[in-house]
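Pasting two entries for a bug report.
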Amino acid sequence: NRWLFQDFILSGERGKLTVKGDLAKDSTSLLTAGLENFDLEHLQVFFPVKYIPDGMAKIEVSGQELLGEGKLSFKTDIEDFALNEYTYGRVELGGTCALSPLNLDLKATLKDEGQDMIILNGSYESANEQLPLNAQIGTDKGFPLAYISPFVEGQLYGLSGQVALDSFNIAGNLDDFEVNGTGHFENTKVGID
């Protein structure tokens, strides 16, 4: 069985979705989809989270053998990415994903005024029960300490200065993970609530 999509387009206020290709169990099956002008605020409807995202996303996904083993590759660009109304800049996100079992390789870069501020490389392997999540976060030149504002609201205030991460690792399960690493602070000011 093969399902064929030829230039399927769905367009409205919340963005534009295009789909083309085919769905089948064989390895020649390839389906591509694109979503343009998607406002991340709409994610809150489907995935209520503590940190409310905002920004306009362009998402490109291609899938092979989706009715069988399934492999995906994706690329996302988010303009004016924000969390809880704190604007960071542009996020470039890309990766690959095997669906059975779930294995995800991911690279994300946060850019501010064209410069790489934070780079994340990571993986998630559902078959690894001990440490399915493994990610490294780094910085080339450091980033403003104020970037952590949404995460410490009500605990810290008046954050200023820069922080550079030498090596920063996140490992464990999604609901129970450890963060280890070292960073250097420069011209830092912090108030404690």
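Entry 2 (this is the one that rendered wrong in the viewer):
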Amino acid sequence: PIFISMAYMSLTLFIISSSGILLIALCSAWLNRYVLVSGTKLSPIFSEFTTRYLRSIRNRILLRIYGTTNTEIGECIRSSQDFRSKMTTIVKWNSLIPIISNLIIPIWLLFITWIGIAYLKVETAILLPFFYLFLRMGTYLSGLSSGISAMLADLPAAKELAETTWLAVDLQKYQKFQNARNKPSTQKYEPCE
């Protein structure tokens, strides 16, 4: 509905504003590439960090006996710094996407005003509702691009979770598991003496 009403008010301004929205979409897609790459690297780093940390907690006495406590602590610190670095990169790119769209929209609005008044001689009574609709559309697309960016950051971890969780991947195995669980056991146990 917003696109139709904007095109009805002024087709030329609608084409110019659509090119601005396309510019925002291209910038968001370019930044989302970095978010996806960082998100792909985050999952193995987090897995390594948690595995190393839990292993060092579990084997604390053994590490003291062998005298490798300081080395293990250094490795845990390195793993946590790698995780923090990747997470900081994801947060940086995720926060940059709405900022860029919120910077481009007012600049593009000034450009539309200049074109509309100087060259197309559009009446101000048409420009004001057009600006409102353009700002509403830009705000909506800014939120949409933020959501897409957050989804891309979490997509690799979600894929890994789906691959490792057999319940989510194979429904037939789940149904067989449920059927076997509901059947009475045929195995006989020997009494303990």
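Dev reply: Rendering is fixed now. As a check, the viewer should reflect this: The chain has a mean pLDDT of 79.
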